[in-house]
Amino acid sequence: EVQLVESGGGLVQPGRSLRLSCAASGFNFDDYAMHWVRQAPGKGLEWVSGISWNSNSIGYADSVKGRFTISRDNAKNSLYLQMNSLRAEDTALYYCAKDHAYDSTYFDYWGQGTLVTVSS
Amino acid sequence: IVLTQSPDFQSVTPKEKVTITCRASQSIGSSLHWYQQKPDQSPKLLIKYASQSFSGVPSRFSGSGSGTDFTLTINSLEPEDAATYYCHQSSNFPQEFGQGTKVEIK
């Protein structure tokens, strides 16, 4: 059974940093691209970042480019999102999502999300 | 690439047919996927590559389209279909979601 468990969310002040993690199990993690998708309270889905199976292809939403860094550790079956210079508008539930393929296609499994609140 | 869904909201009686459209600002071939999100749940994949049903999805859900114009159809709406529906393009980075269409059961 595919499982994606996000962690690392919490309350953080504007301008500070936070690192999210996603622990994957139930599939060959190093065969698939992975993504972060967020959802602000009461709002729609926003794709944040994606990374190919071997980390050679990485993309970011314009809203986070230069502030967020996605990475993965295939030996640990884990996906990460380093979030720097956080802003109030980064407040959201952050989902980890598994891609169907080694590069970007569709998301066939999602975690339950970890909540990030940016506030002073 | 910007994805624009219509309508934003739809109130429908059970067994009625629902049609949601998603328009891309430029051609994305068939790299368009549909998800369903119920309140307090993670999104779930319904349709991949514009028209291919994902495993386990009821047959009343179908998709069509290519290029810039896509449609999600729910034939004979069931009460459990009350949810927000999103289109998603994976043609290139940055990927995008549509703004969502909320379907309410009358």
Write the SSE topology.
The complex is a heterodimer of chains A (120) and B (106).
Chain A: E1 3-7, E2 10-12, E3 18-25, E4 34-39, E5 45-51, E6 58-60, E7 68-73, E8 78-83, E9 92-99, E10 107-110, E11 114-118
Parallel strand pairs in A: 2-11
Antiparallel strand pairs in A: 1-3, 3-8, 4-5, 4-9, 5-6, 7-8, 9-10, 9-11
Chain B: E1 3-6, E2 9-12, E3 18-24, E4 32-37, E5 44-48, E6 52-53, E7 61-66, E8 69-74, E9 83-89, E10 96-97, E11 101-105
Parallel strand pairs in B: 2-11
Antiparallel strand pairs in B: 1-3, 3-8, 4-5, 4-9, 5-6, 7-8, 9-10, 9-11
Structure description:
The complex is a heterodimer of chains A (120) and B (106). In chain A, 0% of the residues lie in helices and 51% in strands. By secondary structure, chain A is mainly β. Chain A starts with a strand and ends with a strand. In chain B, strand 7 (61-66) and strand 8 (69-74) form a beta hairpin. The model of chain B has no long low-confidence stretch (mean pLDDT 96). Chain B has 106 residues and is mostly beta strands. Classes of the chains: A mainly beta (120), B mainly beta (106). Chains A and B meet through strand 5 and strand 10 of A and strand 4, strand 5, strand 9 and strand 10 of B.
Radius of gyration of chain B: 13 Å
Mean pLDDT of chain B: 96
Determine the N-to-C terminus distance of chain A.
40 Å
Mean pLDDT of chain A: 97
Low-confidence stretches of chain B: none
Percent helix range of chain A: under 10%
> What is the overall silhouette of chain B?
globular
Portion of residues in beta strands of chain B equals: over 45%
Structural class of chain A, by secondary structure, is mainly beta
Summed up, the helix count of chain A is 0
Q: Tell me the total number of β-strands of chain A.
A: 11
The shape of chain A, in one word, is: globular
Report the order of strands and helices of chain B.
EEEEEEEEEEE
